[in-house]
Amino acid sequence: MNLPRVIAVSLALLSVASPVVGQDRSTKSATEGPDLSFGDADDWRLREMELMARIRGLELELVQERNLRVEREQEWMEFTKLLALLPEEKRPQVPGFLRNGKQKGEESEPTSTGKPNAEEVEAQKRLARASEIKTILRAYLRAEGVRALDLLEVGLVGDGFIGPIVARQLDENGRFLSTLVADRLRLEKSRSGFTLTMVLEDGYERRTGRIWPFPVEHAPASKDVEANLESSAPSTTAEQAKRTGVLRIPLAGVSPGPWIKALPELFSAEALGRQVNDGQHDALALRFSMNQLLAKPRQGGRWRLISLGGVVGTQWHDLHLAELSLDGKVVRRIFADQGQLSMQGDNLMFALESGAQERAGQRTSFLAGRYTLVLTQVDREAWLRASLPGLK
């Protein structure tokens, strides 16, 4: 329906409508508001048409203003990105309202002309590396097709993490949805599962003016964190108290190799320097023994160990297991970087870490990075006689 035409017709009809007896609409003061004392059903219908036309017009204006706001925000973000690419000597001056309270014309404090000391050099290196990590992260996320996350700030590099983090969540059209704030960002890999997980710790999501803390995954904050909160300023403490829990963003089908090479600071030292085989067990013989035990008839199908990288102590590494149906077809696959066998009564427990499941061609990372495979009512004595690492 043509909105201007509806409005014009409505106003024309109103202008020729009969006035209520005893009241002249043309002489009524404009300060008294619209006249609602209509005499019949036709007047009410005309009034409804007028109001509906106004509502449609306001809704259209609201949509236009929202689209304009999003376009301005995107233009501003692109403008700031372009400025960051320019050499410092060619960048324009910062506007006055962005100078952290400095008055117009106020000069900055003079800088020392002497050589920087070791601490200053180290601080400059950390800032440079943090900026480099931010650029690499954004480039790798783009390369993997992740458009819903836009990193704005990454803080400084720590021991296996970088932070604090500020990021934007975007919808499929690139429009702003929410802001993510976290103290730390680290990466978890699964070479076997061919997955990578971005882990945001101690943070919250701000959406439509409300704050939603991340889900709590582990135990409450340590005493050190509590002590830091108590020693902070009241406003900082209130803000920090909202930062809890862990948000995991899995990236399926991603090879961790390039990420490890480019961003080693964001992985734990244990994950980077892990040993796959200590030479105490023959991986091929273990896989053969395992598959003999798994091949025993089970009512709901059976499992098979497809590949095993090795064993260190009692930890099994680089595992690939397949669940088979009764007719021998693969129903599900499980990939894990490491696992631990244990026996609880007649139930065999295989606690797996850093991996993914694949079903019908869809691969999903382990929830919270862990998954426990449980085989019920197994032949306990047969499993114990096999002397597999972890069973005793």
What does this protein look like?
There is one protein chain. The strands form three sheets. Strands 1, 4, 5, 6, 7 and 8 form a six-stranded antiparallel beta sheet that branches. Mean pLDDT is 77; it is low at 16-33, 101-108 and 218-237. This protein is an alpha+beta fold. Helix 1 (3-16) packs antiparallel against helix 2 (41-85). It is flat, with a radius of gyration of 32 Å. 33% of the residues lie in helices and 29% in strands. The chain has helices at residues 3-16, 41-85, 118-143, 223-231, 234-241, 256-262, 269-272, 283-294, 380-385, and strands at 149-153, 156-157, 162-163, 165-170, 176-190, 195-207, 210-213, 244-252, 302-312, 315-324, 330-344, 347-359, 362-365, 370-375. It has three domains: 1-17 and 37-88; 120-272, no CATH class; 283-385, no CATH class. The protein has nine helices and 14 strands.
